[in-house]
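EI: anyone free to look at a 314-residue chain?
SC: sure, send it
EI:
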Amino acid sequence: MLKLTILLVASFISSGFSEELPSKPKRTELIDNVHGKLSTGVLRLSNRIDRFFGSKRAEDQANGSQIKLAYITSISKDGDIEHEGLIKFRLKLPYLENLLKLSFSKEPAKGQSKKEEKPSEAGTEGKDIKAPKTQNKLTKAILSEPSKWSLNFNTGVKVEIPPQFFANLRLRRSVYFGKWEFRFSQEFFWFSRDGFGETSTIDFDRPISSTVLFRLRNSATWMDETDEFQTEHGPSIFWQISKRRAVSFNARATGRSRPDLYIDKYSTNISYRQLLHNRWFYLETGPSLEFPKSNNWKGVFSYYIKFEALIGSY
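SC: here you go
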């Protein structure tokens, strides 16, 4: 059965090299809304790669609601095979988006200065400490222009026994410094079995060429059930080979906050993604190598195969 699955995947991949899809017409309105005055190469490349890989950012920028169906098979070096199904619904909430943007636009209360307060001087022995200009710029850029904030809501179910339902609310904003894109996102989520949590993510993107993107990720996730933070840090390289094929190279260090903050795993993986049919059916596959502290930092190899279908806006 395993040999048959590998042969099937190989046939799909080889077919992708022989035929390319016709170029899709540019969606001028979408590009204008996302880019605004910053129609630079970094944003176009970031959007294109995230859209192809079906990332959370791509979900946020889609025009309407969507259903995502995914089936994942994971194979360990010992030959153990695990299967996972996923059904995910994305709902666009324009009213909530407008309400959020309105709240950011409100003027400060009377008597409250619009200028930023000076940072605390405790323990400085009379010396004034000023926040770096870059930091002030970044803070002002993030809090300014409410129309550039994005708010999205998703819900769905993980197909397992018993099924696990989930929902999340995500807020996102991008700021640009030269060829760098700084992207901040804040996500609040709920799982029927694991409970509530939140994730804060900061990504730094920079194009290397017209088809290669460098990304540095830093994120922290807190779960109410464990009252613990899990962190993730590391670089990624994305290479868009063609309109229907792309690959990513990723390295990560993950940590935990209990009893004290420490690194509990290093990992690296390669993900190859190919569009199989008519812009809505994808294959994703690749190897992964993890070095967990619980295994005395010894390498653990695995391989995954994922089929993904999009219904609705894509």
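EI: The mean pLDDT is 77.
SC: 👍
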